[in-house]
Design brief:
Elements lengths: L9 H9 L12 E9 L2 H10 L4 E9 L1 H7 L5 E9 L2 E10 L17 E7 L2 H10 L3 E2 L5 E2 L11 E6 L5 E6 L17 E11 L2 H8 L6 E9 L1 H7 L5 E8 L5 E9 L18 E7 L2 H10 L3 E2 L8 E5 L5 E6 L1
Parallel strand pairs: 1-4, 5-9, 10-13, 14-17
Antiparallel strand pairs: 1-14, 2-3, 3-4, 5-10, 6-8, 7-8, 8-9, 11-12, 12-13, 15-16, 16-17
Helix pairs in contact: 1-5
Length: 329
């Protein structure tokens, strides 16, 4: 089975970004367009996200041919993709009809660095949790957790992790009145409102800031350090202590860093991971000049998945191996 440790470029990226000034660089991205994940059975996944989480399928496409092979780095691919909307946010579910990739490791934990999830906002945590139980979702947390009042930046937030049919981590999240974007406090009768952010496990905050903030141009909008029994039971990781950093582009869901200060035994992102593997997530950003983005990312020694600009897009890896697509608006 092909699994090797992803060789981090974080230290080099941080040094290179340190030399960058505002005069040299403008944001490469303007929005988070969608968050993609690879699934084993598109019809099953569409049914789950539609029935259980209230997503609406807005588009289905099939792709094949050399250009897509060069974009995603998978030879001989043929894919089916469903674009799904919840509120104003989108996900893309992609099944590889050929070639089939590797399954997710059955012992995946929330501190492994291939971890990524979407945080779905609920208007009522008690009702949402009851609904998920009725639909027999697989637990990832032990149950919904309310973050404690001593943690000023996270106090009162309620959260619960669970899995989709392929084992991808998902989160439902409820903000107290003094936290979260205004759109989550408009008194909707809908149970699931939209996607607040996608969260990724990282090895070091400084290296990830070098990529997402200093190169891509996202802005830091929040920080906290979370620990204690509630955090341990949310992540289902004993002794979990996390440095959490929230970033946003001008529009779209945020990107949240989860750096595990303890325990430090999370496994690195497999260096040979491919887009057809079931651990694969791919966050799509929109930019105004993808050719300039490609030039700047090469300058900063980013690891490219795509061979160049294909269909007005490029796919690269962040310092820990998470896939990032930049598409020209």
């Amino acid at each position: 089975m092909r699994r090797r440790a992803f060789l981090s470029i974080g230290i080099l990226l941080t040094l290179l970004c340190g030399a960058l000034t505002a005069a040299d660089h403008r944001p490469l991205v303007t929005a988070v367009d969608s968050i993609g994940l690879t699934v084993s059975d598109l019809d099953r996944s569409v049914e789950f996200y539609s029935k259980v989480l209230s997503f609406e399928k807005v588009l289905e496409t099939e792709a094949a041919g050399p250009e897509y092979e060069h974009l995603e780095g998978v030879f001989g691919l043929r894919t089916r993709t469903a674009k799904m909307r919840l509120g104003n946010e989108y996900i893309e579910l992609t099944e590889f009809l050929a070639p089939r990739g590797l399954p997710a490791p059955v012992d995946t934990r929330a501190n492994d660095r291939w971890f990524q999830h979407i945080a779905i906002i609920t208007s009522n945590m008690d009702r949402a949790y009851k609904w998920l139980r009725e639909n027999k979702v697989q637990y990832a947390s032990t149950g919904p957790q309310r973050l404690p009042d001593w943690n000023e930046n996270a106090a009162g937030i309620q959260a619960f992790y669970f899995h989709d049919p392929d084992g991808h981590f998902l989160e439902i999240l409820a903000f107290p009145p003094d936290k979260g974007n205004a759109e989550w406090h408009q008194g909707s009768d809908e149970l699931f409102l939209g996607i607040d952010h996608t969260a990724i496990v990282i090895s070091g905050t400084d290296a990830s800031l070098g990529f997402y903030r200093d190169v891509l141009g996202l802005q830091v909008v929040g920080e906290s350090e979370n620990y204690g029994t509630e955090q341990e039971h949310l992540n289902n990781v004993f002794g979990a202590r996390l440095r959490i950093t929230s970033l946003r582009a001008a529009s779209g869901p945020g990107v949240e860093f989860l750096e595990y200060l303890t325990p430090r035994d999370g496994r690195p992102y497999p260096a040979d991971e491919k887009a057809n593997d079931l651990i694969h997530w791919q966050t799509r950003f929109l930019g105004t000049d993808v050719a300039q983005a490609a030039q700047d990312l090469r300058k900063f020694r980013s690891a490219f998945v795509s061979t160049g600009v294909v269909h007005r897009s490029i796919v690269v890896r962040d310092p820990d191996g998470h896939a990032v697509q930049i598409t020209q608006q």
